[in-house]
Amino acid sequence: MGAAAPQVHQGRAREVRAARRLRLAGSDPGRLRHSRRSRASGVTGATRTEDGAVLTRRSSRRIDALQEVADGVFFSRGRGSNWVLLRDGRELTLIDAGYPADAAQVAGDVRSLAGGIAGLRAVLLTHGHIDHVGALPGLLRHRAVPVHAHPAEIPHLHGEVHDQAGPLDVLRNLTLPHMPSWLAMVLRSGGTTPVHLTGATALPTTGMLDLPGAPEPVLVAGHTRGHAAYLLREPGVLVTGDALVTGHPLSRLHGPQMLPEFFAHDPQQALEQLEVLTTLPAELILPGHGPAWRGSPRAAVEIVRQRS
């Protein structure tokens, strides 16, 4: 997992802007496509709530279907967090990887889109919390795949610093709604397992990466010191990780919101850094927790600010 970082994709910005204009001219903004796996597993469609959230229905049970939300962009919801796969032909980029107990589901997603782990070019991480990196040791046990994150997040991934909520933080917040059931889920999912990705390497901090989906890292610090979002310019999609979410078991809110403050390394910085997202050209937000949300980052941030 210690391969060199991907290079910035030179010369694509103009092509992407032109392609995006063509796509927008002929697109249906309300349309969400489902993979064959989604249809087979019983997903019956998607609805949009009043606040813009795109909600899938799976016979009123937990949502874990792999869903194609834009051309070559796949969104998957695990036990307690989400991940994203970007496909170009038979090659993939994986963004985040759920809890340790999500390893089989993540591997199944990779297999369904690329035939197996050999098609996985790289793993990009929004940050190093266990619910976003937990499946990687299991997923990459038999094949090394490069794992990358923002330079400021590398010490966290290597285990040199600790930006994760601990037992005392949980005890101070026992009155939050659904805390017992959330804690039970965390324990079942391997959420107390330490995962140190000592081979993770730093990404370039600007420009599109030469990887499937041409993701562009954007530093949005606060949740952790090196938390990154990933902009996909051509389909107009923003992967926000935990910088901005649309739901969580410990929250009664629906739609754009911040996670409870005790999860953040610096809650005030996390709120202030949302300004970085407001100028990004996207129409669909894929959060680290909660359903996909259709709307601009500026609109989402405005909702968060009104609630904060």
Can you give me a brief rundown of this structure?
The chain is α/β, with parallel strands linked by helices and 308 residues long.
Describe the structure.
This is MBL fold metallo-hydrolase. This protein has helices at residues 13-26, 36-40, 103-114, 130-133, 136-139, 154-157, 167-172, 179-188, 267-272, 297-307, and strands at residues 33-34, 46-48, 54-56, 67-70, 73-77, 82-88, 91-95, 120-124, 147-149, 201-202, 216-219, 228-232, 237-241, 284-287, 293-294. It is α/β, with parallel strands linked by helices. The chain has a single domain (13-307), classed as Metallo-beta-lactamase, Chain A (4-Layer Sandwich), CATH 3.60.15. The strands form 3 sheets. Strands 1-4-5-6-7-8-9-10 form an 8-stranded mixed beta sheet. Strands 11-12-13-14-15 form a 5-stranded mixed beta sheet, with no helix packed on it. Strand 11 and strand 12 form a beta hairpin. The longest helix has 14 residues, at 13-26. The chain starts with 12 loop residues before the first helix and ends with a helix.
